[in-house]
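User: Some background: our group keeps a shared notebook of sequences we're curious about, and every so often someone picks one and asks for a predicted structure to add to the entry. Today it's my turn. The entry only has the sequence so far, pasted here. Could you supply the structure so I can complete it?
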Amino acid sequence: MSTVAADDRRRLFEVAGLLLTYPDDELHEALPAIGAAAREIGHAGVRDRVTGFLEWCATTGREEVEQHYVATFDLRRRSGLYLTYYLHGDTRKRGVALLTLKSRYRAHGLRLAPGELPDLLPVVLEFAATVGPGEGEAPLRQHRRGVELLRAALADVGSPYAALLEAVSLALPPLTDGDRAAIAALAVDGPPVEAVGLAPYSAYDADASCTPTHAPEESLR
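Assistant: Of course. Here's the predicted structure to add to the notebook entry:
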């Protein structure tokens, strides 16, 4: 069980979900509002990590932040933002996991943007913040190992984004011995590989006419 209060988790997941998106003009303009929300987090460890990351954003040139984001999340497979990849690689099991996530979102009236996969960490965090404890946070708990592998990969390269993953990890249940053993094995061997890739998911997702059904003004974006 998490030691971080539910209200703090909600604020954290909303803030972290935004900060883990590409740092474009829209996100840059929202940083003051995001900072205000982050300062309302009561848990000191969580709040300090998020505000520390925001301080790095404020003191680093925008072009440098953008380049760091691309180099970290788009060009390094070990630190990609797609959680199911860490456990399943490009296999049919990943396709099933993606279908499960999308079905869960649809059950709560949430739709993905065209071309957006449901295991993208900012999407998973937004769902947790919107739906709340229990059902909303279930995908994060289920992919706890993927979150930890991403956190470790970011820490290994000294990325400021590691602070956000540390904050998210603090808000999740502690790792079990089984989690640690599985994470150690995945860190050495990498995710499984299968030639058929994501065909089951692609076939299912032929109707990708999806946009979020909740009003954008309800978020910090």
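Suggested note for the entry: The chain has one domain: 6-212. Residues 6-212 form a domain with the TorD-like fold (CATH 1.10.3480).
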